[in-house]
Amino acid sequence: MGGGAVEQNTTAVLEATTGDWRDSLAALLDDYRKRPRPATSRERFEAAKAWQSELVDAGLAAPGWPREVGGMELSLEDQLDYYRMTTLAGAPKHPCGLSFIVAPTIIVHGTQEQKGRFLEPLLRADEFWCQGFSEPGAGSDLASLSTRAVRDGDVYRVTGQKIWTTMADKADWIFALVRTGAPGRGTSGITYLLIPMNSPGIEVRPLRDAAGGHHFAEVFFDDVEVPVANRLGDEGGGWSIMRTSLGHERATAFLADEFRYRGTVDKVFRLAAEQGYANDPLIRQELAKVETNVRAIAANSARALDAVLRNEDPGGVASVNRLVKSEFEQHLHRLALRLTGSGALLNTRSEGVVEKGRWTYGYVMSRAATIGAGTAEIQRNTIAENVLGLPSHRGEGRRNPVVAPGRPLTAPEADEAALREVLGDLVSSYVDTEKLRARESTPGDYDIGLWDELVKFGLPGLTAPESLGGGGQPLRLLCAAVEEAAYHLSPVPLVPTAIALEVLVAAGADEPARTVASGATAAFVVPIDDRGWVLDSGLPVLDGGRLTGRVERMAGAPVADVLVLLATDAATGDRVLVSVQPEDVTVTVQNSVDLTATVGIVTADGAPATVLGSGQNVDDALVRARRVAQLLVAADSVGVANRALAMAVDWAGQREQFGQPIGSYQAISHRCAYLLVGAEGARGQVLSAADCDEAGPDAVTSSNLATAAALSTAVSAAEDCIQIHGGIGFTWEHPAHLLLRRAAANEAWIGRPEVLRDRAVSEVFDRLS
């Protein structure tokens, strides 16, 4: 098909997108739902091809492609909606996913003739593609490829071998990297060719995989003639074309994966229920992990796509997501196989196998996830050396990091970026680690000077309504501010005060809320255990306007100007929210494991109290406030985790052992890579949860999982930071233990990660039922 077909398709796209494309797609999907489902794999294959042509004819294919090449050119939010709609409808995906690796490359680097020739048949699934990159001697080390192409007039003569070539036996074309320059290892002489698979001299030998199928093959080239017109870009420019041409569809492929994974995770939850494992505590923790990971992938995918749509390189996030996705697939299928119980004894075609053997097959096939397209070990090297800027393990020096370690991998929106920069500079100018260590002798104190500066900045009332003197800003910005303060180990009661303010605002207690928003420190006093806030026992009692009771381990209480307490009304038995003057109660300072924080016992013995709310109003306020409180503690932990990452990478790059930086040893660099994966993943989940509509069905689940991830990540990151520093990290003078202390305190403050995960699993089961 030539340019005329592309123009015809572009007209269809314009007609679909100038109206409401959602209506057009919804109508097509509604029709699809009514059709009988194909019974065999062959029928499913043919149905998927036919569906692609329907989408093209309707102008509803390729949501991220530019319009001039037949795409819909939708915004990020619209693309998310597109994939949600098609996934929920159960519409088949394109039967040749590899086509969407070469497609953006052709869009960015192809000639008009190449675009007209290749894109529409590719989009319709009339022609299939396979990828010719890996070779027997050049798998993860692709720069060592040796397949040779020699120019002979208007053709190249290609000789060599490719391996692990997926769908080679079904493909009409192969996009291949070949060496046109000098032999040896190097990237400057590599060229990108588009080669017909029916060319004389091509031989395909299928390879049987571990699951018993034939998904990939060896491809041999024996003096194969390829027209020079089939070269993509300049001769010798293939390496940069391969690395830089992510394009719209490559990025939106992240989103397609996200929705596919979402559906598979839901199937695993249902499998757990059907097999009787829904209440098994160990299985529930594993389910929570896969649910957390699919959300981390979603957050990373959206950020990568957002970067692409802003014409920025998503390389850092893309590298992290690639590793996370490959290991997630293995964990998911290993858990699913476990859930089949003794059914795991049976092969895929055995009588009595669970769900026709899909989980047995999926588990075996998932072993390729951390091998194909670059092994997990190579991905860790890439993250350590290209993203974090650690010394090369091959002795090739150092590259500049994508961003300074510990900072967001993708540029935030302008308001968030400005907040982070200004607040980070402000807090760092006040905080001195030597003074922090000295706080051990003054456990009931805080940095009043820094607090006053934060109040001038608009904290802690950044998200409070403007009518109460707050900033009226979204929760995401407050989480970013808390993260920055924690990153620099600020010794102020920012999080306890912000939590108390949220409780007051949620309960409609305007006057005390206005006081806190204007700069007063505050604490919300409520018993805590592994579940977080304890709302059903151990509360102080309000009787005749007087409060009696004792609550221990209250963060921020020793320095609070405003004390907000949850109590039980002696007359009605209802929960009531009250405030007391600090001088009317006894606040006993306890020694906090976190030297940057304060903690104390609040004892009331007939203290006069002001009722701020009671009954259902208080219960509703606590539900709303607990979600925010969790995310604020989580954001604090994200700051700690990323500071630990920054310190570890800095030390790994400067400390030498056996004559070279310890960061060049893969044992260290891979640990740093996982530090980044965890810290950046926690940040993405917390900010994504903060962006959720608080009234939405997923808001609480997102908060529980994001908080659990952040709390656990901060502790493990601080522990790894000490380990990477070695002996010096385990000294009182080194600040690493301050991070560990703050992370450990956070983990005990708002609910243990295991409990939060278990709570989230119950919420997912409820949603699916």
Automatic annotation (TrEMBL):
Residues 130-224 form the Acyl-CoA oxidase/dehydrogenase middle domain. Signal peptide: none annotated. Its cofactor is FAD. Residues 23-124, 415-511 form the Acyl-CoA dehydrogenase/oxidase N-terminal domain. It comes from the Bacteria. It holds the Pfam family Acyl-CoA_dh_1. InterPro entries: Acyl-CoA_Oxase/DH_mid-dom, Acyl-CoA_Oxase/DH_mid-dom_sf, AcylCo_DH-like_C, AcylCo_DH/oxidase_C, AcylCoA_DH/ox_N, AcylCoA_DH/ox_N_sf, AcylCoA_DH/oxidase_NM_dom_sf, Mycobact_Acyl-CoA_DH. Keywords: FAD, Flavoprotein, Oxidoreductase. Residues 236-388, 631-759 form the Acyl-CoA dehydrogenase/oxidase C-terminal domain. Belongs to the acyl-CoA dehydrogenase family. PANTHER family: ACYL-COA DEHYDROGENASE, ACYL-COA DEHYDROGENASE FADE29. This is Acyl-CoA dehydrogenase family protein. It comes from Rhodococcus artemisiae. The lineage of its organism: Bacteria, Bacillati, Actinomycetota, Actinomycetes, Mycobacteriales.
